[in-house]
Each structure stands twice: as C-alpha cells, then as structure tokens.
Design brief:
The protein is mainly alpha-helical. It has one domain.
Length: 165
C-alpha cells in the first residue's frame, strides 16, 4: 500500500533539519531579537504610562489642594469684607447718631433762643400795651367808673390784638 522511499524521507528530514538550523541562525534569532526589542519597548511605554498616571494623580492632588486653598482664601476674604462692611456700617451709624445729636442740640438751642426772643418780645409788647393803656387812662381821667371801663376796653382790645400761641 504504502510504498515508502527511504531516500526521499531521509533527504526531506535532512532538508528539514537544515531549514531549522538556517532559520534558527538567520530567522529565529533576529525574530526573537525583534520580539525582545518590542517587549522592551512595550515595557518602557507601560512604565512611562505608569509614571504619567502617577504624575497626573500628583497634579490632581496638587490641584485639589490649591483649589481648597483658594476656596479657603476666598472664604477668609469674604469674611473680612463682611467684617469691614459691618465696621463701616457701624461708623456710618455712629456718625449719623452724632450728627443727629448735634442737629437736635442745635435745634433745642435755636428753639430756646427763639423762645427767649418771643418772651422778650412779649414782655416788650405787654409793657407797650400797659404804657398805652395808662396813657389812655390818664388822658381821659374823669372818674373811677370811666377809668374802669377804659381799662376793661383796653384789655379787651389787647386780647383781640394779641397773637395766639
């Protein structure tokens, strides 16, 4: 059935061994060298990626820290601004109170002065009216009844002329 040609099998086996030796010497070593270089390159790239990831994590942590610092500084500045605003508000209120007090004091003094002037003016008017009444009484001095009528008439006239307070 099978007719085997041992010479052909032996020549093919020798050719195969020679092919393996040639491939091993000229193809396998360079191919394995290329594969080793590729593996080294991939490992280098992976280590770079790991370093980049570590750097990124470090930068993210630094960014978060800086952001927290900025937030804290902003809060502090806002608090300072609020305190400064309250301080200014208190100063303005105190100035307003002082001005109101000064105005009130000045107004009281002005009112007292005007009141004193009015009293003096009223005294002057009363004195003038009294003098006028006495003059009239003296000019028409006839008797006690006429004197009394004259004084009463003058007083009524003065009451009508007197400004109402």
């Amino acid at each position: 059935m099978f007719d085997l040609d041992w010479q052909q099998i032996l020549s093919q086996a020798i050719s195969f061994v020679l092919l393996v030796v040639v491939l091993k010497r000229f193809a396998w070593k360079p191919l394995l060298g290329i594969l080793d270089q590729r593996r080294a390159h991939i490992e280098l790239q992976l280590s770079r990626v790991a370093q980049s990831r570590e750097e990124l994590e470090r930068l993210q942590a630094d960014y978060a820290k800086r952001l927290a610092q900025i937030d804290e500084e902003a809060r502090v500045k806002i608090q300072q601004a609020i305190l400064e605003g309250k301080r200014i508000s208190m100063e303005v209120q105190e100035q307003a109170r002082a001005q109101a007090s000064a105005i009130l004091t000045k107004s009281k003094e002005t009112i007292e002065l005007e009141f004193a002037k009015a009293q003096v003016s009223l005294r002057d008017q009363i004195a003038e009216m009294t003098v006028d009444a006495v003059e009239r009484v003296l000019q028409k001095k006839l008797d006690a009844k006429t004197d009394r009528q004259l004084v009463e008439a003058t007083l009524e006239e003065l009451e009508r002329e007197r400004p109402r307070a």
